[in-house]
Every structure is written in structure tokens, then in C-alpha cells.
């Protein structure tokens, strides 16, 4: 039985005798003097001379009936007391394990022959809703619900149904947890792959940049060498010209002697 998002734990039905199952308000447990007499009772025999039905035999039967009535009432009170303890312990076990998930116990009472009220049934409401978006929390919650359902010494049929439902929700939550873990691992692997690809791209870009720089350096080195070679060639030409200008011309054979002569 569900109330809002919860279910009810109910105590098992009492194992009363047919006499004890009668409602105390409507139970006339004892029998009167006319229903519990045997065939040999003086009531069924012809009255003797000088005796009436209101004689000694009638006066004896009435105390016997009263004693039986009192004994039956005492037996019923003991059964009701035992049932009261059983019901309260049952519901308190649910509530103690359920904790904040469980409500306080509520009871149904009956009035005994002694005028006292005794609990004959009870229930505890417990929250069995999932935790949205958190299968791990749902699993822990349903595990507690299951423990609360089976907490009493003798779980009722309703208790076992609640425990089975909680176990089913635990299995579903566990499947969700496994799926979530797979998705997390997949996302982590994709992230690693993306980082690896980004690193490779950065390395390749750095290599290309380094290659371009080396080519520029080579081109610059060639240009300087060419200019230096050109400079050396010009300097050599200049030196040759200076040398040719500064050196005197040698006289031809016989010229000097002809002038002196």
C-alpha cells in the first residue's frame, strides 16, 4: 500500500485462537447456565419431591460459569498483551533501521476485557523514491529500505514485497552506475586522445616553424657570403690597379745611352 512516495510496513496478523479472535467489545466468552449442562444435569431430570429448579444444583452451576468467564477473559488479556508487544516491536524495528526515511509507527487498537487498549496492528511508512540523477545515492537508499523491511524478527508478506521492490531498484541503480562508469571512461579516453592530437599538432607546428627558420638562416648565410665574395673581388681589382699605377715603367734597351751620347 503506497502513501505518496512511500510504502507501508504492516505487522503480521495475530495467530489467535477462535475464542481469542473475538472482539472484546462483542465477546461474550463465557457460557450461561443453560448452555453448558450435560444430559445428566439435574435440570434435565424430573424434580424430586420438595426440590425446585432453583435448588442447590442451580446455585452450583452459576459460580462455575463465572469462573470460566473470568479464566477466558484472563486468557484473552494475555493474548492481547502479547500481541501488543509483538506489534510494537515489529514496527519499531522498521522505524529504527529506516531512520529518516521512515515515519513514526501508527497503530490500530482494541479494547480488552480489562478495559485497556491493546495494539493489534501497526504500520510504518517509508520513502522508496529514487534520488534523481544519482544512481549511487539511489542504491544506498534502497539498500537501507531493504534492511528496514527485513528488520523485524518475522517480516510480514508486505515487508517481503517492499524488500523485493528495494532489491529490484538496487539492481537498476547498479546498472545505471555501471553505465555511468563506462561513459566516464569513454569520455576520459576521448579527452586523452584529444590532448594527444593537440600535442602532436603543436609539435608539428613547432617543427615547421623551426624548419622555416633554418631555411631563412641558410638564405641569409648565402647572401652574406655572396656579398663578401663580391667585395673581395672588387678589392682585388683595386689592388691590382694601384699596383699597376704605382710601379715605374722599365726603360727600353739602349735608350739611356743614346741620350747621354
Can you describe what's shown?
The structure is a single chain. The chain has 261 residues and is an alpha+beta fold. 59% of the residues lie in helices and 9% in strands. The protein has helices spanning 56-98, 135-149, 157-246, 255-260; strands spanning 2-3, 6-10, 106-111, 117-127. Helix 1 packs antiparallel against helix 2 (135-149) and helix 2 (135-149) packs antiparallel against helix 3. Residues 1-6, 15-53 and 250-261 have low confidence and may be disordered.
Would you spell out the secondary-structure blueprint of this structure?
Layout: E1 2-3, E2 6-10, H1 56-98, E3 106-111, E4 117-127, H2 135-149, H3 157-246, H4 255-260
Antiparallel strand pairs: 1-2, 2-4, 3-4
Helix pairs in contact: 1-2, 2-3
